[in-house]
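Input structure tokens:
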């Protein structure tokens, strides 16, 4: 079984064990897009999944003529993804990632229970 299929199986198990979850948002760097697409493809319709494309399409659709947004798109996009992750029910973080650390600190400041902030170590170390 290849890595994307193993990660997909772990995501499905994680999701199914938490009936309170309505879906999953995967925030990942653009260079990880082939892996994310493979994971999403392996999951199929089993779990509702949104990725950065969904947010990007929404942002550009809402503000198609905003020069400031286009000039600052990367920063705005990253900030919005961080906010989505910060407010999420559960956050699987990447150890060693400053981006994830920012989200973890925000969740701590908002007093979001630590057990809902989980390392994604089990997803990437097969």
């Amino acid at each position: 079984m290849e890595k994307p299929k193993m990660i997909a199986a772990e995501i499905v198990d994680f999701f199914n064990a938490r009936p309170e979850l309505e879906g999953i948002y995967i925030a990942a760097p653009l260079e990880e897009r082939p892996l994310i697409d493979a994971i999403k493809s392996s999951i199929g319709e089993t779990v509702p999944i949104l990725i950065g494309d969904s947010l990007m399409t929404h942002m550009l659709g809402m503000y198609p003529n905003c020069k400031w947004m286009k000039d600052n798109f990367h920063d705005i996009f990253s900030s919005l993804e961080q906010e989505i992750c910060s407010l999420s029910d559960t956050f699987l973080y990447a150890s060693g990632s400053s981006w994830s650390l920012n989200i973890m600190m925000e969740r701590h400041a908002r007093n979001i229970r630590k057990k809902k902030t989980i390392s994604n170590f089990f997803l990437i170390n097969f």
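The longest strand covers residues 24-26. The two ends are 11 Å apart (CA to CA).
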